[in-house]
């Protein structure tokens, strides 16, 4: 998820330096466009028109902008969540990419079979997790719900990447 990592680190930088670009990112138009992109990526992952791996990256990046635009007016300007959540997302995505996805060729056959069956279960399909991430944005009073759901999405991305990468 390189685009998502770059977006997350960029957002950290903008928030930490109190950049005036934050106002642009919090505009309703940017939020609505990002929301539309997120919904399209959910639909694309359902119909599998492009690689699900690309859908994860596009969805995660756009939902980060939706989250920022929707939640920024609801919290104080100096709220630490707008720096620490994107930093956490960038670190966790980079960590799973470096230590799990890049090492997928070392997975034994029995573990791979288990991962493949887990990946095909209907409850944890990518579009289901993406829909839950999108839905949790409606509950800013439960401010920990969004990073938990994004962590689950990143875990699901790791599973998908390992399965798809090993099959190719």
Description:
By secondary structure, this protein is mainly alpha-helical. It is built from eight helices and no strands. The chain has helices at 2-16, 21-25, 28-47, 52-71, 81-99, 109-120, 126-136, 145-167. α4 packs parallel to α7 and α5 packs parallel to α8 (145-167). The two termini are 18 Å apart. The relative contact order is 0.16. The model has no long low-confidence stretch (mean pLDDT 91).
SSE string, helices as H and strands as E: HHHHHHHH
Please work out how many helical segments DSSP would assign. 8
Which regions are unreliable across 5 or more consecutive residues at pLDDT < 50? none
Distance between the termini: 18 Å
Features:
74% helix, mainly alpha, globular, single chain
Secondary structure elements and pairings:
Blueprint (H helix, E strand, L loop, with lengths): L1 H15 L4 H5 L2 H20 L4 H20 L9 H19 L9 H12 L5 H11 L8 H23 L1
Condensed summary:
The chain has eight helices and no strands. With 168 residues, the protein is mostly helical.
């Amino acid at each position: 998820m390189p685009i998502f990592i770059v977006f997350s680190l960029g957002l950290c930088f903008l928030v930490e330096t109190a950049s005036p670009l934050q106002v642009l990112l919090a505009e309703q138009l940017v939020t609505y466009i990002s929301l539309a992109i997120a919904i399209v990526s959910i639909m694309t992952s359902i119909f599998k028109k492009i690689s699900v791996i690309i859908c994860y990256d596009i969805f995660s990046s756009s939902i980060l902008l939706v989250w920022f635009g929707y939640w920024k007016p609801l919290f104080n300007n100096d709220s630490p969540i707008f720096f620490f959540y994107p930093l956490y997302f960038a670190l966790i995505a980079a960590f799973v990419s470096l230590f799990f996805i890049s090492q997928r060729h070392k997975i034994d056959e029995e573990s791979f079979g288990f991962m493949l069956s887990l990946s095909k279960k209907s409850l944890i399909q990518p579009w289901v997790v993406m829909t839950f991430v999108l839905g949790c944005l409606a509950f800013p009073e439960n401010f920990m719900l969004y990073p938990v759901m994004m962590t689950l999405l990143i875990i699901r991305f790791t599973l998908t990447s390992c399965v798809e990468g090993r099959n190719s």
